[in-house]
Design a protein that fits this description.
With 240 residues, the protein is an alpha/beta fold. The chain has two domains: 194 residues, Aldolase class I (TIM Barrel, Alpha-Beta Barrel), CATH 3.20.20; 41 residues, no CATH class. It has 13 helices and eight strands. Strands 1-2-3-4-5-6-7-8 form an eight-stranded parallel barrel, surrounded by seven helices. The chain binds erythose-4-phosphate. Erythose-4-phosphate binds next to helix 7.
Length: 240
């Protein structure tokens, strides 16, 4: 499974990269508008936060193929490293897919809401296909079924395109698309922490602390095991 961070906040992105297995960052015009300001600085900070090996996704705003290619070149001239261009499954967007691939970009066909859009994207050579789960669930429900259908058609076709699911409001949606055949997901920085946490985990850690404390206090293994470290007998006597 590949995990992407759906954010343009470089500080939050760097923070997530410190702890979690991150394949890259996804942005779109709305996500960039939340950060605002000097886009050169925004892209440069994002690249610095993820390094040159992780994929930086961006979405040109031009509706025409030529404009999409121009914008992609402009981002590459500024930041370099591994880049993925997001294009919609429109005639101009699909026409851009093989051209962007030839130019050395990864390509994600985005804002996908049907298995047929996914199949067309894959046939054009897209690396990733991005269904918007919560937006689909909000309108008609069945985001996971959409992913299951697309995954099964892509697999039957022998396609190498990966379903990169986006737009989530809760962790259940993420687990459902993973079960349905997603190969990648993009989630907010806050969601990474939510995915890793569980109240039962907190209870287990609390119990470990409770049992340790009366015997070894606040000392950690490195202090207790170091030659010439804390004298255990003293500590045990002190605590009894
Ligand atoms: C990915 O980059 C998508 O554009 C994004 O996840 C959409 O999410 P939203 O429906 O929460 O705006």
């Amino acid at each position: 499974m590949e995990y992407f961070i759906d954010s343009a906040d470089a500080r939050a992105v760097a923070d997530v990269c410190r702890s979690f297995p991150v394949a890259g960052v996804t942005t779109n015009p709305t996500i960039l508008s939340r950060v605002g300001g000097d886009l050169r600085a925004v892209f440069t900070a994002l690249r610095a936060a993820i390094g040159s090996e992780r994929l930086l996704h961006f979405e040109p705003v031009s509706p025409d193929t030529e404009g999409i290619l121009r914008e992609a070149d402009a981002v590459r001239a500024l930041v370099g490293g591994r880049l993925a261009v997001k294009v919609p499954p429109t005639p101009d967007g699909l026409r851009a897919v093989p051209l962007l691939k030839d130019a050395g970009f990864a390509v994600t066909v985005t804002a996908v809401f049907s298995p047929q859009q996914a199949m067309l994207a894959a046939a054009c050579g897209a690396d990733y296909v991005a269904p918007y789960i919560n937006r689909f669930d909000t309108v008609c429900g069945g985001g996971a079924e959409l992913v299951r259908a697309a995954a099964s058609l892509l697999a039957a076709d022998g396609s190498r395109a990966k379903l990169l699911c986006a737009s989530f409001r809760n962790i259940r949606q993420i687990e459902e698309v993973m079960e349905a055949g997603a190969r990648a997901v993009t989630v907010t920085p806050e969601t990474f922490c939510a995915m890793a946490s569980h109240p039962m985990t907190d209870l287990a850690l609390e119990a470990f602390r409770r049992d340790w404390q009366p015997i070894w206090g606040d000392s950690a293994l490195d202090e207790l095991l170091a030659p010439g470290g804390k004298d255990m007998k003293d500590m045990i006597n002190k605590n009894s």
